[in-house]
Amino acid sequence: MNAIAEPKKRIKEGFIGQKMIVLPPNIKKAITSNALIKGFYLTAIGYYPKAAFHDRERRTGSNEYIFLYCVDGEGYVYLGGQGHTLKPNTFFIIPRNVAHRYKSSEINPWSIYWVHFSGLNSHLIYERSLENGQPAVQSVPYDNSRIKLYEQVYAVLEHSYHEKEMEIVNINLLNFISSMVYYKQTNPVDYDNDFVSNSIAYMKKHISQKFEVMHLAKQQGISASHYLRLFKQKTGSSPINYFNLLKIQTSCQYLYFTDRSIKEICSELGFDDPYYFSRLFTKLIGMSPSKYRKTHKR
After folding, report:
1. Strand partners for 224
2. Which of 6, 117, 147, 285 has the fewest CB atoms below 10 angstroms from its CB?
3. Under 8 Å CB-to-CB from 101, ≥6 apart: which residues?
4. Where does 182-238 have alpha helices with state H?
5. In the chain, count of helices (H) and strands (E)?
6. Which residues form the HTH araC/xylS-type domain (predicted)?
7. Model confidence over 35-49: pLDDT tens digits?
8. What does the pLDDT look like over 122-181, one tens digit per residue?
9. Beta strand 138-139 with 111-118: parallel, antiparallel or unpaired?
10. 41-48 vs 111-118, strand pairing mode
């Protein structure tokens, strides 16, 4: 990123329409003794709309993680000699105890929701936000329900710091941040435009068929060796083993929801040998098909 010219004035906070709450030391201390939320909790929270000349630098870093979520405008985060640009519907988590600076664009000031958070498990949330082990700007589609959740957290804090209020505040805050950190995992369809995901979708659509690797690779238009490597990298399994697992998962539904015989289920899922099916089922599920039906059948 090119160097950005210094603004005419630097403002840490004090913007029209801003919201900001910093927890008192005694409340933070009480949280660290609360088994329900001591793993992850906020220490400060706020919203800065159109934060012109917002510019904050901490040369020794902060002892808390700092979550920045931009919903409008543009801004920049400088960390470890690298610059990161935040635009609408992007977020960034600044690691604790690392020198940093963040600032709003002078031409197009950002509007940001921000949180300082800590806790015994806070480092795990931070680590889940990394890309290839490095801090990175992440994009997420705008979701008004996410903003409403944030506003609910803020409203409760304005009302009370009592124990139960602090519990629901931090539970909801974890949900708020997780909805972005884990967006890709909770919305796989938005990202599943690759060979492996398309192949798995093909398997599910043709669950009663029997396929060889060559056919599955050809269906995706790539070589068998390349297909095998990609599939193993993404799933940790071979394509045929994965396909068999899908079949066994489907058989569990048949055993639970229907009165079909095991022989009929085998035929439906492309297994010629009921004994092979039973052995595979037992290996993957931990019990035989008949025992599964007896145990789980309504």
Report:
1. none
2. 6
3. 55, 56, 57, 58, 77, 78
4. 183-186, 195-205, 213-220, 224-235
5. 12, 10
6. 197-295
7. 999 999 999 999 999
8. 999 999 999 889 999 999 999 999 999 999 999 999 999 999 999 999 999 999 999 999
9. unpaired
10. antiparallel
Confirm or reject CATH 2.60.120.280 for domain 19-187, answering yes or no. yes
Both tokens of 199, joined, read 């192949």
H or E element at residue 173? helix 163-181
For domain 195-296, the CATH superfamily is Homeodomain-like (1.10.10.60)
Domain with CATH 1.10.10.60 in the chain: 195-296
DSSP 30-71: HHTT-TTTTTSEEEEEEEETT-TTBEEEETT--SSEEEEEEE
CA 258 to chain CA centroid, Å, is: 36
Q: Which of 22, 113, 105, 7 is nearest to 62 (CA)?
A: 22
pLDDT value of residue 192 = 54
pLDDT confidence of residue 27 = 96
Count of positions (residues) in the chain: 298
Residues 40 and 157: their CA atoms lie apart, in Å, by 16
